[in-house]
């Protein structure tokens, strides 16, 4: 699905003529959207990837109309004279966009990843510390887990959105034919389209997303990051110094006197609690200005 979204973006982005034609169709609408250009799925701009899905959904009916009129021009259309490659590509892309399986997969991806948009924005902020970042990551992982647990309820809304889009573009709500043995696609038994896509698309996607988040942010990768609990803005919030000592045991070999760590932490916390809140450093670079010579 993601490859198809990017392919549709490139179809219009690579040709000013196609892009102008899409804009012309958008201008014909009474409620013409303010956004008239698709966004690509950038590999490095995390937030823009989420914006891409939102823009794609907004333009979805117009994209189908544009591709349809490239193949079957309306009577009042100007002669745009589309070449053979454009018509062949338009035919393939239109077939993809009107496939109900693609529509369901699109809404599954968009809605599942939407909760990660705010996380992507936060992780790109200059002032975000590691401890706060991991806290936000854990919160989003729990959100994805809740989606998976309550999938019977959550997917009803997602499937409803997909059904409305299918009706809007003239697509049929259907599911692939089930056979006794299938090796090229998911083939879990189901009696209705809702049940089929829940079992064959949504649940596998959420399980994959959960696995990827767990793999990327494993607990063993956080051992070195626990040292950021010593940041003044973090240490003043500490209430369990025994737990903090356990987390900092990773650095035990570097401590001059490991047995005194707990007392040192308490003294460090009390030092900063006695200072005005606005003078407590919140970033590592700010700590240099208050460090001992």
Number of strands: 0
Shape: elongated
Overall mean pLDDT stands at 85
User: What structural class do the secondary elements suggest?
Assistant: mainly alpha
The whole-angstrom Rg is 26 Å
- Output the number of helix runs: 13
Contiguous uncertain segments of 5+ residues: none
Helix content: 55-70%
Largest sheet descriptor:
none
Strand composition percent:
under 5%
What sequence of helices (H) and strands (E) makes up the elements? Answer: HHHHHHHHHHHHH
Task: Kindly report how far apart the N and C termini lie.
Answer: 57 Å
Structure in words:
The protein is mainly alpha-helical and 293 residues long. It has 13 helices and no strands. Helix 1 (2-13) runs antiparallel to helix 4, helix 3 crosses helix 4 and helix 5 crosses helix 8 (151-169). The longest helix has 26 residues, at 46-71. It is elongated, with a radius of gyration of 26 Å.
